[in-house]
Write a structure and sequence with these properties.
This protein is α+β, with helices and mostly antiparallel strands. 22% of the residues lie in helices and 43% in strands.
């Protein structure tokens, strides 16, 4: 815990973030009744999934005292060769920095 406080939470510390992005293929596949609220869904097994926008991550980390270094959408393609299926995936990938005082 002390390492985390010095290296990440302390002045000049960096934090990397990557999670599902808005309009990811998995988000678009949810059937009616699975939406809890905007961007927030429940999977069949009961786990929950939130799909972030870059504006969401910038706001959340700014409120926590971080500066934005990089905050972009990253797209990847997932290929299932057995099913001959290719689906686009969207992630938010960000880097934030604690300001040096």
């Amino acid at each position: 815990k002390q390492w985390y406080q010095r290296r990440v939470r302390g002045p000049g510390g960096h934090l990397l973030f990557r999670d599902y992005g808005l309009y990811d293929h998995a988000m678009l596949r949810f059937k009616p009744g699975h939406k809890i609220q905007d961007q927030f869904y429940v999977r069949q097994d009961g786990t929950r999934a939130f799909y972030f926008s870059t504006e969401d991550t910038a706001r959340i980390f700014k409120e926590a005292g971080f500066e934005t270094v990089v905050n972009d959408y990253v797209t990847r393609e997932t290929v299932n060769k057995k099913e001959n299926l290719s689906v686009p995936r969207i992630f938010v990938q960000s880097q934030f920095r604690k300001p040096v005082l």
